[in-house]
Automatic annotation (TrEMBL):
A matching Pfam family: MreC
Transmembrane feature ranges: 20-39
Gene Ontology CC: plasma membrane
Highest rank taxon of the organism: Bacteria
Any one of the GO BP annotations: regulation of cell shape
Similarity comment: family membership: Belongs to the MreC family.
Domain Rod shape-determining protein MreC beta-barrel core: 130-274
Matching PANTHER family: CELL SHAPE-DETERMINING PROTEIN MREC
Known role: Involved in formation and maintenance of cell shape.
NCBIfam families: mreC
Alphabetic keyword roster: Cell shape, Membrane, Transmembrane, Transmembrane helix
Entries under InterPro entries matching the protein: Cell/Rod_1, Cell/Rod_MreC_2, MreC, MreC_beta-barrel_core
Protein name: Cell shape-determining protein MreC
Length: 292
C-alpha cells in the first residue's frame, strides 16, 4: 500500500527577505528622525540615557584625566623649581654686586680721607695697602705692599685717615713691616693740643695706649687730644694720635694716663707712609769774640 506523502517539518523557518527587512528598518529610522526633529519625542530618552551613561563616561575618562593632571602638575613643578633657581641665582648676583659696590664706595671714602691727610702733611707720603698681619703672635705688626723700591724706609711713620697707626720697622724690596702703635715695644712722643703738655705714648696691648713721664700735678684730663710732638725727628708734628680716656693721680709722682688711639688700627686697609720731618738747618756757630 502506497504511503501518503509526508514531509518532515523544516527546522528553520524562512522569514522576510533581507532586502525587505532593510527597507523596513530604514523607514523606521527615518520616521523616528522626522518625529524627533519635529516633535522631540526622543528628548526624554536621550536625557535618561545620558544620566545612565555618565558614570561610565567618567570612569572611562578618569585614567586619561589622571595622566593629564599629573603631567601638568609635574611640568609646573619643574618650571617653578627652575624659576626659583634662577631667582636665587639672580639674588646672589645682586647681593654680590651690592657688596662690591659698598666695598668700592667705602674704599673711595677712605682714599678721599687719606688724600685730605696727605694734603695736611707737608712732607712726601707714599700710599700703601695693608696685606696681612705679621705671623708673630706676640707682636702687633702688619705687612704693607710697598718697600724700598717705592721709597719706604725703616723708621717712617704710618697713618690712616684718622691718625697714626704705627712705624715702619723692617723694609724689603716690595714689602715692609709696620709695628702698630698698640704694640708693647712701640712708643711715640706726643703733646696735648689744649695746653702743649708733652709726654711719651706707649702701647700696652688690648688696643690701648698709656702716656708716661707726666707729673701728677700737670693739667691733663679725659677728653684731651694728643698729637705728635715731632721731637724725635721722625713723626711730623701735629699728626693726630689718641684721646685721653682716664687720668689716675695717686700718691705717685707721675700720673697714670690711659689713652685710646684715634686711628682704626685694627681695621685700616689703606694707609700713608709719611716721610721724615724736615727741619731747618742748625744756626752757624758764633764767631770767636776777637775774630774779624
Amino acid at each position: 500500500m502506497p504511503l501518503v506523502g509526508h514531509q518532515p517539518p523544516p527546522i528553520f523557518r524562512r522569514g522576510p527577505a533581507p532586502l525587505a527587512r532593510l527597507f523596513v528598518f530604514v523607514a523606521l529610522c527615518l520616521a523616528l528622525l522626522v518625529a524627533d526633529l519635529r516633535f522631540r519625542y526622543l528628548e526624554v530618552l536621550r536625557n535618561a540615557l545620558s544620566v545612565v551613561t555618565y558614570p561610565l563616561q567618567m570612569a572611562a575618562s578618569t585614567p586619561a584625566d589622571v595622566v593629564r593632571n599629573a603631567t601638568r602638575y609635574f611640568g609646573t613643578l619643574v618650571d617653578v623649581q627652575l624659576e626659583n633657581a634662577d631667582l636665587r641665582r639672580l639674588q646672589l648676583d645682586a647681593g654680590e654686586r651690592l657688596l662690591r659696590f659698598e666695598q668700592l664706595e667705602q674704599e673711595n671714602l677712605h682714599l678721599r680721607e687719606l688724600l685730605q691727610m696727605s694734603e695736611r702733611v707737608q712732607t712726601k707720603s707714599i700710599a700703601a695697602d695693608i696685606l696681612y698681619n705679621a705671623p708673630d703672635p706676640f707682636a702687633r705688626k702688619v705687612i704693607l705692599d710697598r718697600g724700598t723700591q717705592q721709597g719706604v724706609e725703616a723708621g717712617l711713620a704710618v697713618v690712616d685717615a684718622n691718625g697714626v697707626i704705627g712705624q715702619v720697622t723692617r723694609v724689603h724690596p716690595v714689602q715692609s713691616e709696620v709695628t702698630l702703635l698698640t704694640d708693647r715695644n712701640q712708643s711715640i712722643p706726643v703733646s696735648v693740643v689744649r695746653n702743649g703738655v708733652r709726654g711719651v705714648l706707649y702701647g700696652v696691648g688690648r688696643g690701648m695706649l698709656e702716656m708716661r713721664h707726666v707729673l701728677a700735678e700737670v693739667d691733663i684730663q679725659p677728653g684731651d687730644r694728643l698729637v705728635t710732638s715731632g721731637l724725635d725727628g721722625i713723626f711730623v708734628p701735629g699728626l693726630p694720635v689718641a684721646t685721653v680716656t682716664r687720668v689716675d693721680r695717686d700718691q705717685d709722682a707721675f700720673a697714670r694716663i690711659e689713652c685710646e688711639p684715634l686711628a682704626a688700627i685694627e681695621r685700616s686697609v689703606q694707609v700713608l707712609v709719611i716721610g721724615r720731618a724736615a727741619y731747618p738747618p742748625p744756626p752757624p756757630p758764633p764767631e770767636p769774640a776777637g775774630g774779624r
